[in-house]
Amino acid sequence: MTAVTAGTSASAGTSLIAAIRAHPAAEDFLAWPGDFSLDAYPHVEDVVLASGEPLELLAKEGGGGTYFFCGPSELGEDRPVLFADSEGGAALMALNLRELVELLITVPWWQDCRTFTAEESAEAAEDFLEDDPDLPADRAAAARALGLTLPTELEALTRLRETATGPGRAYVLLNAVEGCAYKPLI
Questions:
Q1: DSSP classification of residue 185
Q2: Can you say whether residue 169 is alpha, beta or left, with left for phi > 0 and alpha for psi between -120 and 50 degrees?
Q3: Is residue 9 over pLDDT 80?
Q4: Distances in whole angstroms, Cα of residue 140 to Cα of each of 25, 83, 87, 158
Q5: Which residues pair with 66 in a beta bridge?
Q6: What integer pLDDT is reported at residue 40 of this predicted model?
Q7: Backbone angles phi, psi at 183, to 5 degrees
Q8: How many CB atoms lie within 10 A of CB 112?
Q9: DSSP letters along 61-116, please?
Q10: CA distances from 67 to 12, 25, 96, 136, 180 (A)
Q11: Using 50, 70 and 90 to split pLDDT, how confident is the model at 14?
Q12: DSSP annotation string for 101-150
């Protein structure tokens, strides 16, 4: 099994990580409400993938969760991204960093969407919009800064569910010391 390494890896050419860092509007939106900070620190415990594929620390979430790249670093940002919360749950979130960033900008309240419906997303969005009425404009500015065309909320949530329950089943996260598997978040 391969241990987690710190840092990020950018593919040759345009790096989305570099673009995020270069555009404060995008970095700020991803930090909040996206709850995705590239200023990462280690996960709450040592973890490995059951497959033995390498994990690389990508970003942190305010509640102690961690985003990891899965697979060899040579693939750069085109690697699948797994999220592990601090309570022993994990899910494959996206097939690459671009998909993840699109999800986090489009539906930063994804953790409140357990049924992945447009109605549920609209309900969760209300709380966010109540706290931040500028969210739609900030979302548009972040997407523009990164050159992204965002999916609809329903498209983003559908892609998340399909990724987590399809290819994501092959990405089982284990506590590296005890060997017990994280529970599927989705």
A1: -
A2: alpha
A3: no
A4: 10, 25, 32, 21
A5: 60, 84
A6: 79
A7: -80, 145
A8: 14
A9: -TTS-EEEEES-GGGGGGS-EEEE-TTSEEEEEESSHHHHHHHHHH-TTGGG-SS-
A10: 21, 21, 12, 25, 19
A11: confident
A12: HHHHHH-TTGGG-SS--HHHHHHHHHHHHHH-TTHHHHHHHHHHHHT--P
pLDDT: is 1 or 20 the higher one?
20
Nearest to 33 by CA among 116, 109, 96: 109
| Amino acid letter, residue 69 | F
Q: Which amino acid is at 75?
A: L
Residues 86-135 pLDDT 10s:
999 999 999 999 999 999 999 999 999 989 999 999 999 999 999 999 99
What is the model's pTM? 0.91
Please calculate the CA angle 149-150-152 and round it to the nearest 5 degrees: 140
